[in-house]
Write a structure and sequence with these properties.
The protein is mainly alpha-helical. It is globular and about 45 Å long. The termini are far apart. Pfam families: SBF (PF01758). It is found in: Membrane.
Length: 276
């Protein structure tokens, strides 16, 4: 039964990754993605926040709190992977600049594909990590569905409009299944995390990332960068973890960060909306 649940979780991850990125492509045009990225200073700050400061925060918390290596690797993977599709929804909830959120999310997602295979071996020495395999997996599961969605949106807008709600439904359901099946399949590992600093690390990491994005964003962009830096790309982290780390606690830790992200960022986005 446990093996069946784990297998179901692995399948749900694939559906979650592909449907999330396909849905983004079906919803946007290339122009919408590129327009907010014409501010070089803002782009540079966003990249520094997501690919320098966030990974360093995850790595620092891993060692500061003395997490077991699998939990630390799971936290680190979420720190390395940026550009979560859910950022667009958070920006809508926060009544923030959705166009900026769209451009930022796609930029971070694309760079994540090349960044994780290069950066991960620098942090996790002595671990058998296959950079080429990671890059190929992320390209197949994320960039190709994104490109297909953008192409359909540009060439067959009516078709894109009809299938977009179904793709969104698949994304939402598969995300729920990832969480439920991962917890059910690794129940002992999840319970074991309660005896560690795993949950505390996830909470502190999310707060730190909010602060990083808020500080570097500046007026007009701090809300989007705060949400965008804190909402890590769990989909990409799942792909990398599943192919390179056998210990189930790595996947469990990513799931913990995913849950903490949602529980903290949803009310935070509503707070931002009310503060306007």
């Amino acid at each position: 039964m446990t093996e069946l649940l784990i297998r179901g979780s692995d399948i749900a991850v694939v559906f979650f990754v592909v449907s999330s990125t396909l849905g983004v492509g079906l919803s946007l045009t290339v122009g919408q993605i590129l327009a907010p990225l014409k501010n070089p200073r803002l782009v540079a700050l966003a990249l520094a926040a997501n690919f320098v400061l966030a990974p360093l925060a995850a790595f620092g918390l891993w060692h500061l709190l003395g997490l077991d290596e699998p939990l630390g690797i799971g936290l680190l993977l979420t720190g390395l992977a940026a550009g979560a599709p859910f950022l667009i929804k958070l920006a809508e909830f926060a009544k923030a600049d959705v166009a900026l959120a769209v451009g930022l999310m796609v930029l971070l997602m694309v760079i994540t594909v090349g960044f994780v295979p290069v950066a991960l071996p620098l942090f996790v020495r002595g671990t058998a990590v296959n950079p080429a395999q990671i890059a190929v997996s992320l390209i197949v599961l994320m960039l190709i569905p994104l490109a297909v969605g953008l192409l359909l949106r540009a060439r067959l807008q009516g078709v894109a409009g009809r299938i977009r709600p179904a793709v969104g439904w698949v994304s939402n359901v598969s995300m729920i299944l990832v969480v439920v099946l991962t917890i059910a399949g690794h129940l002992k590992d999840v319970a074991a995390i309660f005896g560690t600093f795993g949950f505390l690390a996830a909470i502190v990491f999310t707060v730190v990332c909010i602060g990083i994005g808020w500080l570097v964003g500046g007026p007009g962009a701090r809300d989007v960068l705060a949400l965008g830096t804190a909402q890590r790309n769990a989909a990409a982290a799942f792909v990398v973890a599943g192919q390179n780390f056998a210990d189930a606690k790595v996947i469990v830790m990513i799931t913990v960060v995913l849950i903490v992200d949602f529980l903290m960022l949803l009310p935070f986005s509503r707070f931002l909306a009310r503060s306007r």
